[in-house]
Protein backbone atom coordinates (compact mmCIF):
# COMPACT_ATOMS: atom_id res chain seq x y z
CA UNK A 1 0.00 0.00 0.00
CA UNK A 2 1.34 3.40 -1.00
CA UNK A 3 1.27 6.30 1.42
CA UNK A 4 1.95 9.98 0.83
CA UNK A 5 2.93 12.26 3.69
CA UNK A 6 3.04 16.03 3.24
CA UNK A 7 4.88 18.53 5.41
CA UNK A 8 6.04 22.11 5.34
CA UNK A 9 2.81 24.05 5.62
CA UNK A 10 2.27 26.91 8.01
CA UNK A 11 1.42 30.56 8.46
CA UNK A 12 3.32 33.06 6.34
CA UNK A 13 2.94 36.73 5.53
CA UNK A 14 2.08 37.90 2.01
CA UNK A 15 5.22 37.93 -0.10
CA UNK A 16 6.79 35.16 1.93
CA UNK A 17 7.89 31.67 0.96
CA UNK A 18 7.24 28.09 1.98
CA UNK A 19 8.54 24.76 0.79
CA UNK A 20 6.23 21.76 0.88
CA UNK A 21 7.49 18.18 0.80
CA UNK A 22 5.67 14.96 -0.05
CA UNK A 23 7.31 11.62 0.74
CA UNK A 24 5.99 8.47 -0.89
CA UNK A 25 6.37 5.16 0.90
CA UNK A 26 5.24 1.61 0.36
CA UNK A 27 5.63 -0.94 -2.36
CA UNK A 28 6.58 1.31 -5.23
CA UNK A 29 9.53 1.28 -7.61
CA UNK A 30 8.97 4.75 -8.96
CA UNK A 31 7.11 7.75 -7.69
CA UNK A 32 5.59 8.17 -11.18
CA UNK A 33 3.96 11.40 -12.11
CA UNK A 34 2.96 13.35 -9.03
CA UNK A 35 1.13 16.53 -8.30
CA UNK A 36 0.16 19.14 -5.78
CA UNK A 37 -3.45 20.24 -5.43
CA UNK A 38 -5.06 22.71 -3.07
CA UNK A 39 -8.48 23.32 -1.66
CA UNK A 40 -9.57 26.66 -0.25
CA UNK A 41 -12.56 26.92 2.12
CA UNK A 42 -15.79 26.60 0.18
CA UNK A 43 -14.02 25.84 -3.09
CA UNK A 44 -13.26 22.73 -5.10
CA UNK A 45 -9.88 21.09 -5.04
CA UNK A 46 -7.72 22.41 -7.88
CA UNK A 47 -4.47 21.48 -9.53
CA UNK A 48 -1.49 23.60 -8.51
CA UNK A 49 1.38 21.79 -10.23
CA UNK A 50 2.31 18.39 -11.63
CA UNK A 51 5.58 16.76 -12.57
CA UNK A 52 5.86 13.75 -14.84
CA UNK A 53 8.14 10.76 -14.52
CA UNK A 54 10.41 12.39 -17.09
CA UNK A 55 10.42 15.65 -15.20
CA UNK A 56 8.15 17.79 -17.35
CA UNK A 57 6.04 20.22 -15.35
CA UNK A 58 2.59 21.78 -15.52
CA UNK A 59 1.39 24.75 -13.46
CA UNK A 60 -1.89 26.47 -12.81
CA UNK A 61 -1.89 29.92 -14.39
CA UNK A 62 -2.33 31.50 -10.97
CA UNK A 63 1.01 30.18 -9.69
CA UNK A 64 3.21 30.34 -12.79
CA UNK A 65 6.42 32.19 -12.09
CA UNK A 66 5.97 31.91 -8.32
CA UNK A 67 5.83 28.17 -7.59
CA UNK A 68 8.27 25.45 -8.61
CA UNK A 69 7.65 21.71 -8.42
CA UNK A 70 10.60 19.34 -8.30
CA UNK A 71 11.35 15.75 -7.41
CA UNK A 72 14.06 13.59 -5.89
CA UNK A 73 13.51 10.07 -7.18
CA UNK A 74 16.05 8.50 -4.84
CA UNK A 75 14.21 9.92 -1.85
CA UNK A 76 10.77 9.31 -3.41
CA UNK A 77 9.98 12.90 -2.59
CA UNK A 78 8.29 15.72 -4.45
CA UNK A 79 8.67 19.36 -3.42
CA UNK A 80 6.69 22.52 -4.02
CA UNK A 81 8.65 25.74 -3.56
CA UNK A 82 6.21 28.58 -3.13
CA UNK A 83 7.47 32.17 -3.40
CA UNK A 84 5.72 35.54 -3.42
CA UNK A 85 2.78 34.02 -1.61
CA UNK A 86 -0.59 35.74 -1.74
CA UNK A 87 -3.66 35.54 0.46
CA UNK A 88 -5.44 33.64 -2.31
CA UNK A 89 -2.85 30.85 -2.01
CA UNK A 90 -4.36 29.94 1.36
CA UNK A 91 -5.76 26.43 1.56
CA UNK A 92 -5.02 22.81 2.29
CA UNK A 93 -2.36 21.46 -0.05
CA UNK A 94 -2.55 17.81 -1.04
CA UNK A 95 -0.02 15.56 -2.69
CA UNK A 96 -1.27 13.10 -5.30
CA UNK A 97 0.14 10.04 -7.01
CA UNK A 98 -2.21 8.06 -9.25
CA UNK A 99 -5.21 7.22 -7.03
CA UNK A 100 -3.45 8.01 -3.74
CA UNK A 101 -3.77 11.26 -1.80
CA UNK A 102 -1.92 12.55 1.22
CA UNK A 103 -3.64 13.89 4.30
CA UNK A 104 -2.94 17.50 3.35
CA UNK A 105 -0.97 20.34 4.90
CA UNK A 106 -2.45 23.74 5.73
CA UNK A 107 -0.98 26.85 4.15
CA UNK A 108 -2.21 30.19 5.46
CA UNK A 109 -1.04 33.46 3.94
CA UNK A 110 -2.02 36.36 6.15
CA UNK A 111 -0.60 39.47 7.73
Notes on the structure:
With 111 residues, this protein is mostly beta strands. The protein contains no helices and eleven strands. It has strands at 3-7, 10-12, 18-25, 34-39, 46-51, 57-59, 67-72, 77-82, 91-97, 100-101, 105-109. Helices cover 0% and strands 51% of the residues. The model has no long low-confidence stretch (mean pLDDT 94). Strands 2, 4, 5, 6, 9, 10 and 11 form a seven-stranded mixed β-sheet that branches. The protein is globular, with a radius of gyration of 13 Å. A hairpin with a 2-residue loop joins strand 9 and strand 10.
Q: Secondary-structure blueprint of this entry?
A:
Layout: E1 3-7, E2 10-12, E3 18-25, E4 34-39, E5 46-51, E6 57-59, E7 67-72, E8 77-82, E9 91-97, E10 100-101, E11 105-109
Parallel strand pairs: 2-11
Antiparallel strand pairs: 1-3, 3-8, 4-5, 4-9, 5-6, 7-8, 9-10, 9-11
In short:
The protein is mainly β. The chain is built from no helices and eleven strands.
Q: State the major sheet.
A: 7 strands, mixed
| End-to-end distance | 40 Å
Order of helices and strands: EEEEEEEEEEE
- What structural class do helix, strand and pairing data support? mainly beta
Number of helices: 0
Kindly state the percentage of residues in helix.
Answer: under 10%
Give the overall average pLDDT: 94
- Taking pLDDT < 50 over at least 5 consecutive residues as the criterion, the unreliable ranges are none
Overall geometry: globular
The proportion of residues in beta strands is over 45%
User: What is Rg?
Assistant: 13 Å
Find the count of extended strands (DSSP E, 2+ residues).
11
Amino acid sequence: QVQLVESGGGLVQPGGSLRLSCVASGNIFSINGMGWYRQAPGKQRELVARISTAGSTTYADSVKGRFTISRDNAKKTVYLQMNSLKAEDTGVYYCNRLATWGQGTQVTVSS
